Amino acid sequence: MFLLAFSGQNPETVLPFIKERGIGGLYLSNENLGSPEEAATLLNTLQEASINGLAGLPLLTAGDQEGAWGVMVPYSSTGPGNMALGAAPVEHTKAMYTVFSQELASVGMFCDLSPVADVNSNPYNPIIGTRSFGEDAGKVAERVKAAIDGLHAHNVIATAKHFPGHGNTDSDSHSGLPKVSRSLAEIESIDLLPFKAAVDAGVEMVMTAHIIYEALDPENPSTLSKKILTGYLREKLGFQGVIITDSFNMWAIQKNYDPGEAAIQAILAGADMIMLAEERYGEDVGDYKKNQTALIDRVEKAVMDGEIPMERINEAYNRIKALKEKFNLAGRVPVDVNAAKQTVGKAENRSVAVAAAEAALLASDPKGLLPLKAEAEVWVTRLAVEDVEEIIRIAAGIGPNYANAFDDFVTLLRSSGVKVRLFEPGDELPKNVTVLTVGENYPLPGKSLDLQRQRDRLGVVFSNTQNPIIYVGLKDPYDWNMLQAHTVVYAVGSNISNIQAAVNLLIGKIKATGELPVTPVNP
Hints:
The protein has 523 residues and is of the alpha/beta class. It is 39% helix and 12% strand.
């Protein structure tokens, strides 16, 4: 009933939990998996330990391959992210998630903690953003179903998250305990619609949100609420699969509850698996191995003392065991390391990703600046100032795991034949050159980029030059209205496929045909 994690690629820390405590699964991040060969070799080792250990069953190997967040980056084909898929026709969602399932299964990752079923109805949401398919509940539901179908194509377990929805929050459960104050009618017609679609599509797992939904349970976050997990998800929606919690290492739990007591409450509420991912958000979480041991010990004691009925334990155990048997995990290990190497990131899969990214592009060109003239000199500046790579490193591989958007954009622009000169917003620019500014945003756990500072730096560029200015958004399109009088291109994401698509549009290879997946914020 525990899905735990470890740091780096050395499994020695977690092997005792597998061999001697019989944990049911592992959360694996980009930090763990590395290259396809490394990932397959590591997962084969872990599965052997589990099958020969106390549990005698294969592990539920799970990670966040959801597009905007990814594993095996940069080797894998993560595609353009969910919001870009929301801007593109729905067939691209199924195609992209089919690629996910093929690549994950090849290395022995049998569970994707995806799709994100959250409806991103709050434009100031700091943690979901481009992880969501958009703000239209019906279109999100349609893409959630397509994503589940795609994951099933290669026998990968799908997980709808974060129940009952993390899209209408203006805070991040990695760093606090959000609340949603919508009415029950609004919750059912917006937030819950994609989860209903997921259950109808046969999703096998649902992940809880560490969020208080006041209309459903004013006292407890979903993870700890029997009203929500048993009363609503099980009884009203009819979900019969495995309920897994979001990570107990997130500050929503760590700063507001005793983790052991919270785990007991979650199990009594109806959760079948407790997840403890290793994530740090720039703060020391202490002795991680000690924390995992304490969590298991406390739940074990609660069972021995009768605090948790054995009936509840057996119910959860049987669900987890049945899920592993349904997907024949025991018969699928060990995986072929060489086959994994040939599968992950292959040209065919990357083509699927670029096609989806191209179909998502948004553009407005009232001044007729596009396509860029091959002989023209283009002066390019980055508006973001944060070191995104360092933020992701501190978070222990949790998050987007693709942080070189601007550098790769410049590299691809240059390789396409454009003459690029870099500058800072305050620099004096020569006359008669094209100016290109690049905005970025990433759904980072526990931290957000300073978007106002990006807008301020853009303002400096406008005030320092009379040259034509192009804005390229490697991000969500919420600020579309603020820039609509100028030439703008939105890739609706920051992955390599988004960048390639944006460059293809800038040089005139393709046209923008995407549809806005969210309502822009008024200037």
